[in-house]
Amino acid sequence: MSDTQNYSTLSDGKSIENNDALLEVKDLHTYFYTEEGVVKAVDGVSFSINRNEILGLVGETGCGKSVTALSILRLVRSPGKILSGEMIFEGENLIEKSEEEMLHYRGNIITMMFQDPMNSLNPVMKVGDQLAEVYLLHQMDYLKEELAKAQQENSILKEKLKQMKSDLKNASDEGAETLQIQINQLKRKVKRKIKLKDIAYRESSQLLDRIGLPNADLLIARYPHELSGGMRQRIMIAMGLACNAKLLICDEPTTALDVTIQAQILDMIRELKNRLKNSVLFITHSLGVIYELCDRVAVMYSGNIVEYGTVSNIFENPQHPYTKGLMSAIPKITPESRKEKLSIIKGMVPNLIFPPSGCRFHPRCPHAMKICKEIRPPLIQMGEAVQVACHLYDKDQSDEDMFRKLTARERLEASF
Asked: What pTM does this model have?
């Protein structure tokens, strides 16, 4: 068994391909070539996102979640490089696409909400300009259609205004007063010239209304620093939804927000997913958010997927020692738990320049065996809805020496 086994293949040789998958990531490797060494940020990651579902990607800081998302959109910057793998989106391999072809996917078909809204929004551009820019870049055909409709409606209003002014000359004193009020009201609706940018602003304002931001007409005239963190995050969500993309990537969109705003944003993402029938890749540290929002979850550790399956199965019966450690580290609010110490995962996240051999979790794993130190475990099927990468579930454990548990001293030595 090779240390670099392809994660897209299960132990029985079957592929994890899904006919209903919108996106399939297969054996993805993304490395960063730094002065200190090669950072193996994503090292053989495979998963799929089905149509009309939310997949959660959870793990500790530095495990490769954001790099995975950036790789999907081919936005990895130098010194990073996508070395190998496949990213099949609706039958097309994104890795093989040119930069010009990827521009068609970014925003139009796949869009991403970045982690920090204050850094993602341009501080010197008004909110309306930034939202309108999304429409002008990616929805030009739609804007032109709406512009033609608006110009036609405006022409009709102009003709009506012209007729009313003509009628005013022959109206009686009482009728003229009423007619003048109607003319003044109509004048406010008639515009001299309608431009594409006006339509883009109109769509931006309507979008902010749909996501629950009050006074959208006033909001689009403000700068990002004039808004609260929750408002800025909603603006980022609006930019992500402006093109009705088939896949929405959310990179920790609720980070640093209070629980009330966090709950509102999660409800909004769920509601919009149900209405637009799109798919979502939701990246987070919070298992609570995963449980509340997602259909399936991929648990990531040190550039690898260690457990992958439905939320209900993994939360009710976690298999991998790392997943179990994450679950046990969640604070409980029962009276009995107050007397117990909070469980932690011992050790530190490994350096991705010099990752541990074999299973990367073995220096921190209480069940680590000799085979864990030497051979990287493949994802194997555990029941119908869960896959796990752990030697504890190897079918053939006849080699007693390979499956001898490491002592605490051996695990300590393996971590250096």
From this structure: 0.80
